[in-house]
Each structure stands twice: as C-alpha cells, then as structure tokens.
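Handout, section B. The chain below has 355 residues.
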Amino acid sequence: MALSGMLVVALIAGGAGGVAGSLFSPASGQEAAPEDEGPVMNEPPPEAPQRDPDTIAGVAQRVSPSVVYIGSANPSVPGGGSGFVIEGDYVVTNDHVSSVLEEDGIQIEYSDGSLSDATIVGADPSSDLAVLSLADPIDVEPLEFGDSEEVIVGDEVIAIGAPLGLAGTVTQGIISATDRPVSPEGENASRFYALQTDAAINPGNSGGPLVDLEGRVIGVNSMIVTMGGSMGEGSGNIGLGFAIPSSEAQSVVERLIGNESTAYADIGVELDLQSPTAGAVIADGSGAVEDGGPADEAGLEPGDVITSFDGRRVNSGQELLAMLRDRSPGDEIDVVYERDGGQETATIVLGSSND
C-alpha cells in the first residue's frame, strides 16, 4: 500500500474510452460519414423488462453476460475477483487476482451460473494484467476495447464486477481524472497513469471492466484509495477508484496472447520510493545506479533527485515510474535533477527492462 497522507492505494481483489463515432452534417456535395453502429453486444435476457440500449440499464444488460467472477477451484480457498471475455474466449483480469488462485486452480463463473476451469495464458505483474484460457467457454459476445486516449473528465462510465463476491454488480459514475499516476508498494507493483472514477468499486471488482456508454471497455478496474492505514475496517469505496487504461491494457493483452516478451523503458537506477523529498530520489549506496546503464552514462549519481522528465514535473519516484511506462527503450529524454543544492540537466537514452 502506498501512503499519501492518510490515503491508501490498495489492490481490490476480493478477500485481500472509447467515444462513439460522431455524426457530422455533410458539407455541400459531400456524403454523410457512416454512422458508428457500436460494438456487438449480448441480447438482454428475454424474460427481463426491455431497456433502450443507450441507457445505463441497457448497456448493463448487454455487457454483464460477458463479465465473469473469478475464484478458486477449491471452495475452501478465499478470495477472488472479476474478469471479462474478449475475442477468442479469453478472459482478461488483474495479475493480482489470478496469481494468488493459480496454485489451487482457477474457476470462472458466468452470470447465468455456468462454470469453467481456467488456466493462465500469460501474466504481466508490472502491468497488473493477466489473460486466462477457458476449458469450457459458453457463447457470449466478446467485449471490445475502446480508446481511453479519447476519454475526458466527466464522461459517464459503468463498472461491472463482483465486489465482495457479489457477482453481476453494476455501478455508475464518471471519469474523475485521467493520467493519474498510481502505485501500490511492492517489488513488482504496477505503476501507470490510471483513469480515476467515482463509480463504486470495492474488493472483488479487480479485473472487471470499466465501460463507456457504448459498452466498450475503456479501463480494467485495479485499485482504490481508502481512508486509514489498512484494508480492514473502513476500507471500502470512498469514490476514488482507478482503472488501467485500455490503451495500455489492449497492447499488453495482445502481447500476452501472442506469447511475446514485454519490455519497458528503464533508466537503470534504484529509486527511494519512501523518501518524503519532492521528486524522484535515487537511492544511496553502491549499486543504486547501474554501472554503464542509462543514468550512469548521463552522469547521474546516488542521492540525485530527478525533478523534471521530458519537461514534465516529477513529484515522486512512483510518478517517474509511471512516466517511464509511457516511453519506449531507445527514447532520448531530457531530465532535470538536483545535487548538493544545485540544479543540473542531462539527456538520458532510455534502456530496456529486459537488459
């Protein structure tokens, strides 16, 4: 858990945007642009009262059959989370959901009660994403990824999942912020720029979809902020939830399905993530700066404080790690850092996390 005052960023495993195509008035002599019909979704249950497909209830009716509860194949093992079906009958979820269930076997449950065993196709702890393959999939429409780069503050969103094991729970809210750097503690903890939402998500929502009003997945719910210092009493939703943007999730999922290696940009330093100093503090001591690594080649040393990265202010080590996720190995980045009360600048050629 990462502390910020009295706020705790916590993973939300249980027990522990796409913008619709617009219609433009054609200019004189031009044909109208084709209307975006939206993604293919499930038909609502025939016994259910019908709702317009562009309402919250209509979207929930059509998306929910493709959202699954993920638990242990051993009923005595607690915990679990959520996931959603994509093309090829794969299920996307959080790594922190699937990794703790893998040893005893994973079982998923559809909204109609159908069960299937599942195995992990691939997982990326640094992105907190995993892809599952189902032994006995049923016929539901795969959910489509939207474009989170087009999401703006105020857009309405819907979260669907199994908070506290209550499968099929639907909550509604808005996008409260974009590009919010988040990171829990931990050696392999995911650090990324998240979509922030006030849609109620709680332990058990992890891995479930955050969808727009077209039913497209614009984020994968992953974390919440709670008041207090533990995940015990008072650890529920306070309107601060975070989702992995679809722009990142889709690319990671495609690599996992294709069994491709994942490499992220790296500067070759150990950061002091507990330092109260504003900026990204390079840890003291031998080995804090990798010999011959990007930072070493640029002249950075243990104890330096990086305050600017490619023209963007750096407030913490976690924020710098999130910024690196937006970059690729080989990129040249200008940084500003402080040393012994003075300010220095340098150009770093980013390395690879696989080096």
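Note. The radius of gyration is 22 Å. Compare this with the example in section A.
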